[in-house]
Each structure stands twice: as structure tokens, then as C-alpha cells.
Amino acid sequence: MPISQKGLTPIAAVPVFLAVICYFFWGSIIEPDRLKASKHVLEGAKTIPIPNGHGPEGLEFDPQGGGPYVGVTDGRILKWSGEELGWVDFAHTSPHRNNCTRDAVVPSCGRPLGLTFDRKTGDLYICDGYFGLMRVGPEGGLAELLLGDVEGRNVTFANQGDIDEEDGIYYFNDSSDQYHFGEVFYVSISGDKVGRVVRYDIKKKEAKVIMDKLHLPNGLAASKDGSFVVICEGGTSILHRLWVKGPKAGTSEVFARVPGLPDNIRRTPSGDFWVALHCKYNFFTRLFLSHSLIGKTVMKILKMETVIHLMNGGKPHGIVMKLSGETGEVLHMLEDSEGKTMKYVSEAYEREDGTLWFGSVYWPAVWVMNTSVYDRK
Asked: Among positive and negative, which fits the CA dihedral 179, 108, 70, 363?
């Protein structure tokens, strides 16, 4: 029996209705959340372009105060040498440089992410999103691979770490056992809890997993006294405090919850923490992260670029948060909500000279501003 025309009418009307809704309310649907406590000051930061590189995801300064050093898309680590010299090559994570391009990630070229100097030796430790944990000496050049697997699993997506110089221990996140840096947003929406925290003994050259079953562990930073590390879990927006010394060693607790997808975290000179959020929550972020079935369906039908566009609310923006080093309480929340100056902010790094530096996972620039802009007494 054929379906009647009468029965087709309401079915045919559904896509028309949805199209009308999207046309009139798309801005409200896709718009990132508005946060009342934010100070909209980031658009006033100074931009330092990187003409020869994209995506300075992580920032670091050497023991003499030089830098910043940044890792860029084509596998190099660049050093800022001032206005006259600009950015100069310092190191690289792969000997295979022929096919490397500043505009796209090439797996054979590597992708340096989190950077940490050992203040005692001058060695730079590098989390590479393809190769694993690496190190290069104070003179730079080709980095050596220190750790490519732990406990029978490859280090597939080394992300960010921090060093306990007193004990000679390096802690870092391995974000996924399936996806590399190039698929980072797929890691966030897949729902897979396969990320882990690794403890690497520099002298003994021994590594072990000290926390696992995490959904995209992204940033990691150690406390000022070295008693705990804070891990940013990108897939849940939870910051965990993992105790690594003292009577609570081996236990963890929720340190803070943030209103978006956390990226890198950095300790301040006073012992607090800056957390960069890749983006704030919106309708699509909540939808994609609501259930692994939804996330994995989205992975099959949408390109990565589309996923990033929707989760950023169609408008890449900048947001960072300063948290108390003791309680995780929010001390400051800074934004460039319209993305006029900052986009895809991945790290905020506060220095003792009163400057705050910012990196970006995709943009060809870093930014700097004075802390007095937001911290007036």
C-alpha cells in the first residue's frame, strides 16, 4: 500500500523547520558561553608574529632568562632573540626535514608541544605529539628520543610535562594510545579513557604509569614544593590533583573544574597556576562530549576542521584562568571573547618580571602583556 501524500507532508516539513530554526537562531546555538567573572583585557596584548612558523603551542624560557622558546608545526623549536634578530632556529625533533611545512603537521617531522628546561643542566625536555619524550642540550640541534614506550604501550601523544629538579623526575601526559596530535579533537570527543600520566626517572632512565584511564589528559604542572602535580583532563574539563610525595602519595582528587576545554597549565612564580582554555563551552561542545556514541558518530561524518569550527563557536577566541596553587579557586579569568587579538590560546606563562606570555596551538604568533593590566590593587 503506497504511503499517502498526507503522511509525507509532516515528514517533509521537518528539514524545512530545522532550516528555519538554524537560520534565525544559529548565532545563539553556536555562541560560546558568556562568563560573568571574566575581565575582557586580552585583546590589548602585544602580538609578536612568527613569520616562519605556525602554532607555538608551548612556551619556555631558558635558565638565563632567554626566550621564549616555542615548538611549531613543522617540528622545529624556535627562540625569540629580540626585535632585531626575531625568531631563530634552536632545535628540531626529527632528522627528516625535507617534507616539513610550516602550514601542516607532517608526522615524520614531529610536533613539539610542551617544553621544560632543566634549570640545573640547561637541557630542554620536549613532549612531541608523535615521537614521545625527547631532550636536547643547551646548544640545541637534533633532539634525542628518551622514551617511546612505557609498560608495553607506545607513547603515542606526549603532550605536556614538568620536572622535579630536586629528585630528577620528569612527569608528563600521554594523551592517547590511538591518536596523535593531529587528531586531538577526535581524542576529546571519542570518549575513550586511555590517557595516562607517566613518571620518568632521569638518572635511572626508568618510567612507570602513575595515573591512567583519563579522557585526554592535556596539560600538566608540578606544585611549587613538588608534592603534587595538576593534570588537565581535556575531555571532562576536570583538573586533577595527583599527590606524588608525602602521606597522600598515589592518591588523587578533583582540584578544579573549568568552563571549557583545558589545554596547557603553568605554575606561576608564587606557586599558583595559569590554565589556558582552547575554547569555552557551547551547544556543540556539550553535545559532542555528552556521550561517546555521539562523539564517535561525529568523527565519522565531519571533518576535523568542521569539528574545531563548531566547538569554537565559529569564532576562535582566547581565555585563560589563574587558579590558587593551594585550593584551585579561580583568582582571575581573562578573555578576548571576540578573538580580536588572541585565537586558539594554548598556554599562559607568567614571569617574575611581571609579564604574561601566551602561546597558540594554531596561530602564527605569541602574545605578551603586563600583569598590572588585570591585577591592579
From this structure: negative
For the chain, the residue count is: 377
Please state whether beta strands 87-92 and 141-142 pair in parallel, antiparallel, or not at all (unpaired). parallel
357, pLDDT greater than 70: yes
- In whole angstroms, what is the distance from residue 27 CA to residue 75 CA? 37
| Residue 24 in domain | no
Residue 291: other Cβ atoms inside 10 A: 12
Residue 8 lies inside a defined structural domain of this protein: no
Domain-located, residue 269? yes
Taking Cα atoms as reference points, which of 270, 277, 269, 275 lies closest to residue 351?
269
Tell me the residue type at 114. G
Overall number of domains in the chain: 1
| pTM of the predicted protein model | 0.91
**Whole domain around residue 146: which residue ranges?**
33-372
Asked whether residue 107 is assigned to any structural domain, the reply reads yes
Report the range of poorest mean pLDDT among 16-30, 242-256, 347-361.
16-30
Lowest mean pLDDT among 2-11, 41-50, 339-348: 2-11
C-alpha span between 84 and 50 (Å, rounded): 14
Cβ distance 335 to 276 under 8 Å? no
**pLDDT tens digits, residue range 132-187?**
999 999 999 999 999 999 999 999 999 999 999 999 999 999 999 888 888 888 88
Q: Angle of helix 292-301 relative to helix 283-290, nearest 10 degrees?
A: 110
CATH of residue 191:
2.120.10.30
Strand order in the sheet with 87-92: 59-60, 69-71, 76-80, 87-92, 141-142
